[in-house]
Design goal:
Residues 28-80 are annotated as: Disordered. The chain is an alpha+beta fold. The protein folds into two domains: 1-55; 61-203, FAS1 domain (Roll), CATH 2.30.180.10. Helix content is 50%, strand content 19%. The protein contains nine helices and seven strands, in the order αααααβαααβαβββββ. The protein has helices at residues 4-55, 74-77, 82-87, 93-101, 105-110, 121-125, 129-137, 139-147, 157-160, and strands at residues 114-119, 150-152, 162-165, 171-177, 180-183, 186-194, 198-203.
């Protein structure tokens, strides 16, 4: 009987070793499953980021009038400083004429970061022709009106609501949220447009100081 003990002991030891081996394998499998689960979550996170990027793009009914390609498109404007970008946009020809008359092109283009509330051609057309011509001929008053539309810093839509100091030294008040904002009596018709150094919010009326 004593001769059988070593064999039984050896068999028991072998069984223990096998159990540890199986446990280790099971642990490895769990790690693999965990790694697989983590790797599978990455595409979902990436998709969420893409959706956020899309949601943070331009908004508003007026964006339909922006060219879909070329220098005046949303993508084209993003490459140029703000005054140059505006000059390529067919919605903003009167604004560009006014900025040029006030000698503000270099000032706007060289600024580090701005938010510009840009009146459309239709917005300027609301001003009687004689009054508009008089404004365009008065450089000091024109400069005051135009800089009343500009705020330092690039404001995203979630930063837009509130009272902001303009480059004219006075203030404007923006109300709203999401994709609906008003600036004084003007409504934002195409917002959150990027240029190289500014955020542009196209508005449907000219803001008077």
């Amino acid at each position: 009987m004593n001769r059988l003990l070593p064999r039984r002991t050896a068999a028991a030891a072998a069984a223990v070793v096998m159990c540890f081996g199986l446990a280790a394998c099971g642990s490895d499998s769990g790690d693999d499953d965990s790694m697989s689960s983590n790797s599978e979550s990455s595409p979902s996170a990436s998709a969420s980021e893409d959706m956020m990027d899309e949601a943070s793009g331009p908004f508003g009914p007026g964006c339909a009038g922006v060219p879909t390609e070329g220098e005046g498109s949303v993508e084209g404007m993003a490459d140029d400083p703000v005054a140059t970008a505006a000059s390529n946009n067919p919605l903003l020809t009167t604004l560009v004429k006014a900025v040029t008359a006030a000698d503000l092109v270099d000032t706007l283009n060289s600024a580090e970061a701005l938010t510009v509330f840009a009146p459309t051609d239709d917005a300027f057309a609301k001003i009687p022709a004689d009054d508009l011509n008089a404004l365009l001929a008065d450089k000091d008053q024109l400069t005051k009106v135009l800089t009343h539309h500009v705020v330092e810093g690039k404001m995203t839509p979630d930063q837009l609501a509130g009272e902001h100091e303009t480059l004219a030294g006075d203030t404007i008040t923006v109300e709203g949220s999401g994709e609906e904002f008003t600036v004084g009596d003007a409504a934002v018709v195409c917002g959150n447009v990027d240029t190289a150094n500014a955020k542009v919010y196209v508005i449907d009326s000219v803001l008077m100081p």
